[in-house]
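User: I'm writing a short methods note and want a consistent example. For Carbamoyl phosphate synthase small chain, chloroplastic, I'll paste the sequence; you return only the structure tokens, no commentary, since I'll be parsing the reply automatically.
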Amino acid sequence: MGIYAMDFALKFNHSIFSTPYPPKPSPKCRFLTARCSLPLSSDGAATGLAERPWKVADARLVLEDGSIWRAKSFGASGTRVGEVVFNTSLTGYQEILTDPSYAGQFVLMTNPHIGNTGVNFDDDESRQCFLAGLVIRCLSIKTSNWRCVETLGDYLAERNVMGIYDVDTRAITRRLRQDGSLIGVLSTEQSRSDDELLEMSRSWDIVGIDLISGVTCNAPYEWVDETKSEWDFNSDGRDRDTYRVIAYDFGIKHNILRRLASYGCKITVVPSTWPAAETLKLKPDGVLFSNGPGDPSAVPYAVETVKEILGKVPVFGICMGHQLLGQALGGKTFKMKFGHHGGNHPVRNLRNGRVEISAQNHNYAVDPASLPEGVEVTHVNLNDGSCAGLAYPALSIMSLQYHPEASPGPHDSDCAFREFIELMESTKQAA
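Assistant:
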């Protein structure tokens, strides 16, 4: 057994630790030399060392641009591929995790401290986590919320979702803003080489993939969950007539359904492939086309369904539903550089001049120049001027490119649900 000798010098200056007035001249620097010896094993590694009390880097995020980011893992292990996007919300990570619109994506949180409130059973926005993985700067080592039932790490592990932390999320965000959304690979498998992971990232693409079919419900169902008082912050609908709404599930969030119910709607949720003819047989007062993940051009069957319903009943499109309406009206959609993801996007309502702080989550947008005459752009994103809302009064159409239910986010846009009620009410009275 060999002896490993390690010499080190500890240098200090006495003037740092004393505060004489007036100050005395600094003494000469003194040196202390310590010598310690540790036994070596046959392969040269030191033995007798205690296990490190901290976690070491055991995961990699490899981006298609060739950059490799070392990190620590939590949640599930393995290897996943997805599109990396950043979200600027300061809170609400559980709602973000369970937003089906993030299917196929790694969500990078720009807020550095995540996990401090744990998770609970009330804040889920869908039946499961659909995102490919979570990327954060600092994972909270303690939870401190009265509703917490388990830690974020345990929650992700149970749902087979990968997460990494202790990675420079600010640097990655700057790269995404400069170069646009990038395909990446998350891996905890040390047997896979960097080159292998890089090849995976460069051979996969999210454009043109039907992601809606993986998040929609399997069969129609009635939304019967009672809206609890903490969610029912607007009870205007209680004094109104009941309106029958068919909601197409392209990745619908629970709080969209809660808000519609709060405004007096009786809701039937149907799968994304539900025939338009079957919807019209139910004689609804209105149809909602929900949010959802991916490329609207990859789901032509959904566009055809929208076309068959337009003009026969009032419709309201949210995010993916807004994009599908744009295509059904003859317009075009395009992929944005890095999309809009967060709870702090300013939007101007062009009809009344009001500015709303909105919650957004989308990578595609409608090109307003491609829309036919009669279609009105009602809302504009003030960050980049992109189309954030449409209306076509002749066909009783309204849509928003963002989330009026705002979970998480401010409630500035909740009035959109009231406008949908008024659209159905006026159409009913005119019939």
